[in-house]
Amino acid sequence: MPYLLKSEPDKYSFDDLLRDKETVWDGIKNNQALITLRNMKKGEDCVIYHSNEGKAAVGLAKVVSVELAPPVPPSKMTTPIVKIKAVKRLKCEKTLDEIRNAGVFQGSIMFRQFRLSVVPLTQEQFDWLVHG
DNA sequence: GCCAACGTTGGC
DNA sequence: GCCAACGTTGGC
Within 13 Å of residue A108, how many CA atoms lie on the same side as its CB? Predict the structure, then answer.
């Protein structure tokens, strides 16, 4: 399953990821987002979205590895350590407005709970972001 | 277990 | 920088 990962570009942008080649996607606190991270599998596709500044889907990445570290108390759930690598910049960036107006995103979890920083995408949504 | 207060996220 | 929408926390 593909995913959309949100990032504030002034903290960590897709350019930073291109420079680093790969990175550990940490700093996620929201429980729903953590559940999604735990379910990620090596080789799955991710779209990087820039929130705040930019507000557009800008790049492609791939899951390199998912490690489930022991829980950090008081949490009883394992701590997902997801490593991703940069693939390429999107040929055609998709702005928030374009995403919101796209048919494939109607009723999507992304806009029902827009604060979620890690969102599963349908294959159709992923294809639209990359090729649409 | 309820609910008010507080924190976080992200659009504007 | 402000605020709306939620999620989380803590007192009761």
Answer: 23
| Nearest CA-CA partner of A117 in A7, A15, A39 | A7
Would you say A115 and A32 are in contact if contact means Cβ atoms under 8 Å apart?
A: no
What's the N-to-C CA distance of chain A in angstroms?
18
Q: Given CA atoms A84, A87, A88, A90 in this order, what sign does their dihedral have?
A: negative
CB atoms under 10 Å from CB of A4, counted, come to 22
CB of A51 lies under 7 Å from some atom of strand B: yes
Task: Examine the pLDDT at A74 and tell me if it is beyond 80.
Answer: no
* A92, HSE (Cβ side, Cα atoms, 13 Å): 8
How far apart are alpha carbons A45 and A74 in whole angstroms?
A: 31
Which nucleotides of chain C have an atom under 7 angstroms from any protein CB? 1, 5-8
Q: Which residue has the tokens 């294959």?
A: A123
Q: What is the pLDDT of residues A6-16, one digit of tens each?
A: 999 999 999 99
